[in-house]
Amino acid sequence: MLMPIRPAIFFDRDGVVNLSPGPGYVLSIEAFSLDPAIGDLLALAKSRGYLAIVVTSQKGVGKGLMTLHDLDAIHASMQAALRERTGFEFDAIYSHTGLADCPFPPKPDPGMIRAAAERFGIDLHSSWLIGDADRDIEMGIAAGLKGTVRVRSEKAETATASHTVDTVAEAVDFFRTVL
Fold first, then answer.
1. Within 13 Å and on the Cβ side, how many CA atoms surround 32?
2. Is residue 52 within 8 Å of 82, Cβ to Cβ?
């Protein structure tokens, strides 16, 4: 394992990176719509020396609603759109798919964060998570991150985040003050 040397921001996907699909799943490239402010947040993270890593639950794969190929295509399209808009992309994407052979446990287990920390030598105590659900916040807390930021959504709020914002654009303003 690398010695922890770099901080990261861990991003939930649906409801943070892309606009929330509501109660369903994003099953195609056409249904995926980047949040208008995510490019600014990604560029800020990268400019401050932070790794940017997506940690996402995509159980639609395990339920047979989409294939791993479909998921990979959505993520490739997301990365291309971000590169085009900002010149940056996410350093890695970790997905819990719900498949029996998925190497990552479901949220709130911090397995995806720990796998990224081991791979990239991430200093978890200097890192942040941004998500829109209790399971995201709980995962960041369980991983021992410096802080968690909740983007308010239609989801219940029972887990307490370090900071709460109404939009990803507000998160950009918040991270400008703490990174």
1. 19
2. no
Q: How far is CA 99 from the centre of its chain?
A: 20
pLDDT of 3 above 80: no
Joined tokens for residue 37: 């402010």
Q: What domains sit in the chain, N to C, each tagged with a CATH number?
A: 8-178 (3.40.50.1000)
pLDDT digits (tens, 9 = 90+) for 14-60: 999 999 887 889 999 999 999 999 999 999 999 999 999 999 999 99
Residues 6, 12, 15, 17: is their CA dihedral positive or negative?
Answer: positive
Residue type, 21: P
> Is residue 70 annotated as a catalytic residue, yes or no?
no
What is the reported pTM?
0.96
Give me the catalytic one of 12, 35, 91, 136: 12
* 4 to 50, 86, 119, 137, 164: CA distances (angstroms): 13, 27, 10, 22, 27
pLDDT, tens only, 43-56: 999 999 999 999 99
Tokens of 167: 């939009």
d(CA 134, CA 128): 15
Is residue 12 flagged as an active site residue? yes
